[in-house]
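Our consortium's second objective concerns turning raw sequence data into structural hypotheses that experimental partners can test. To show how far this objective has progressed, the report includes one record in full. It was chosen at random from the queue rather than selected for favorable results. The single chain below, 335 residues long, was entered without modification.
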Amino acid sequence: MQPITNIFTLLKVPKTTVIVMHQKPDADAMGSSLGLYHLLQAMDYPVTVISPTNWADWLKWMKGADKVIDYELNTARANEALEKASWIFCLDFNTLMRTRKMAAPIASSPALRILIDHHQQPQEEMFAYGISDTSKSSTSEMIFDFIMASGNGDKIHLAIAECLYAGVMTDTGSFRFSSATASVHRMVAGLKDTGLDHSKIHENLFDNFLENRLRFTGHALLNRLEVFYEYNTALICIPWKDLVKFQIRTGDTEGLVNFPLTIQGIKFAALIIDRDEEIKCSFRSKGGFDVNRFARQYFEGGGHINAAGGRSSETLEQTAQRFRASLKENALQLQ
């Protein structure tokens, strides 16, 4: 994988481009993708954005979200765009498996694949150019850096600013995580100069749910939460029937895994959800407990030191039992 800086001189000539994010995109995946989309449009690129799956309703306010192709719903159209592309930007994921059913079409496309991501252990051999920087708060911050370093800072307009702000703000936990460095705050200051109304974005992201989602959250915390004080750990297990009962949609469980970390002394929190087709896992931690290592070792996943995800092909109860057993094996690190 060649350095991302090697494409800076190539940017001057517009190329047919596709931007791809990971499945079930969050605000950083969608925000970084649409931020880059608006930049390339301003540079007269023919550009298409594809999501491997659907996305949460609370991301649809972003300008350009209505132009994103859902691969599962529009497979033929998306594959046609991939076949015609000269460049494929891969944002906020670093292994093709994170694109679900898109992995094979991306791998077989004649286009050059370009990686911009901040997760650990990238699949470097799959990308012609790229940057993987785990010290960065978000892929949205990296897109901002990409725009500035390539000499296109003058093209940052309000729509780009809104998308990138949404991504960096959510991935830093509203700027409370250690990843919210001085450079992040300088970035935000620059985005504010475009006329960015940050309070409106917070409302769009956090005050934009239905009543059933709030009731589901209360039910999950009251009835599905287990606390293992001897391991400074908490676990929430959500059966499929709960998702059906409360009519939970894509994005409605976002942030639920963080609630147990508000309990005094809890350093490690896990959310295990029966999605019917498979079991999905989310892991969060405080301090030095590496949930990226944990997810890779036990749940076919990965991510960051303090935030990671995984999966299981077992039943919900079997997966929960495996999680409980893993705590004993990691007891020393959880003290």
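The partners drew two points from this record. The chain has a mean pLDDT of 96. The chain is about 35% helix and 20% strand. Both points have been shared with the crystallography group to help prioritize constructs.
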